[in-house]
Each structure stands twice: as C-alpha cells, then as structure tokens.
Design goal:
This protein is mainly β. The chain contains 2 helices and 14 strands. The protein has one domain: Porin, CATH 2.40.160.
C-alpha cells in the first residue's frame, strides 16, 4: 500500500471533510453539510459521516460510521482567527488515531502536517496557488522526500474545480476525483483509484442534495 493510500486512510476515511475555513480549500456556501455517504458502484454504503457546527457556523465535529452504521471515529476541529488550525481524530474509546495541522504564510494557506496517533509525522504537504486558486498539492514523507502530488483543474468559464488528479512520486496517475455540478453547485464526486470507483453524495440541513465547493479533503 502506498503512503498516499495510507494517508487517505488516516485522513479521508477518518474525517471525510474539510468544509469551511482553512487548508487552502474553498469556503463553504450557506447550506451546511449534515451528512456525507460514500458508496460503491452498486450503491452499497462504505462509509458515512455526520457533521456538527459551533455557534459561528464552523464545522466542530465529524463522526464517522462504517457500512453497518457503527460509530468508528470522531474528529474535532480547531480554529484561530477564523482559519482552521487543525483537527484530531479519535476512536470511540478516545484513542487518538491521527491529527492534522494546517500551516499558513502571511495569513494564506501554505500546507499541512499529518500525524499518526502517537504524534509522529506521517506526511506533509505544500500548496501551489495560481490566480487565487489551488492548482497543486505536493506530498512529502517525514524525510522531506516527495511522495507524489495532486493537480487541480478548473472550468475556464465558471472557475469551478472539475478534476483532481493524484500522482505518485514518479508522476504516474494513481487516482482521479471528478466533480459534476448542477446550477453551479457540486452534485456528485466520483473517485477512481485503479479498478476501484467510489461515489460521494451529500445531504444538507436544508434538505438539498447538493454540496458546497469543498466537501472533502483532496490530497
């Protein structure tokens, strides 16, 4: 298993979301995400996440559930000066599984540090922006060796993100994440990694089955 796959396991499958402030991701819309489901091609549930918010409207807690509906993870989020500073993911007994720290330079998002449960650095990442949009995330191992990168493409007319393509250290494609929109709002995300395809659907507090610009963290 690649370090990228392990990172996805530590982060995406544990937390599932990076909605709102921080991390160089797009800001959330007025519709607050209530639940996210990951399914396979047959519609079988793989993972589910539910979301809670603080008094300001930032995501404060994300609970993860497996395919049987069993609660398996809880992620709590911290903020400083209106920016997401990091998160900690624990299992139901309170054991820390992973943590994420976001880094900033002059107030602008610059990258992240992903740690395992014992606090050791598992991977880091840096962001590249062009015209105010994140166009690449480069991933590193604890020795600062590049382990891969993800490029982000945008619609030239709407400016909406359309495809994220993840590469290994040699430049080989290891996965893609494709977004489709309805009336300017993201409706579906299809993730392909080798022969594995998964789909993400989103339910909001106002009942709309559409999503904000950044429903989950894309390495």
């Amino acid at each position: 298993m690649s370090r990228h796959s392990l990172a996805l396991g530590l982060w995406i499958l544990a937390v599932g979301v990076s909605t709102g402030c921080g991390g160089g991701d797009d800001a959330a819309t007025s519709s607050r995400l209530a639940r996210q489901d990951m399914t396979d091609g047959s519609g079988t549930l793989i993972q589910r996440w539910t979301y809670a918010y603080d008094g300001i409207g930032y995501v404060s807690e994300v609970r993860g559930f497996d395919s049987s509906g069993t609660h398996v993870t809880t992620a709590t989020f911290g903020y400083e000066d209106g920016r997401r500073s990091g998160s900690v993911t624990r299992n139901p007994s309170g054991t820390v599984l992973s943590s994420m720290e976001y880094t900033y330079v002059d107030g602008a998002p610059s990258g992240y540090i992903l740690r395992t449960g014992d606090g050791s650095v598992f991977s880091t990442g840096t962001y590249l922006f062009q015209d105010g949009r994140k166009v690449r995330t480069t991933r590193y191992d604890p020795t600062s060796a590049v382990t891969g990168w993800t490029d982000f493409a945008y619609d030239p007319v709407t400016g909406l993100r359309t495809v994220a393509t993840s590469h290994d250290a040699n430049g080989g494609v290891i996965g893609t994440s494709t977004r489709t929109y309805r009336a300017g709002l993201l409706q579906q995300v299809t993730q392909v990694a080798g022969s594995n395809t998964t789909y993400r659907t989103f339910l909001y507090e106002d009942g709309r089955n559409v999503t904000d610009p950044e429903p989950f963290f894309e390495f």
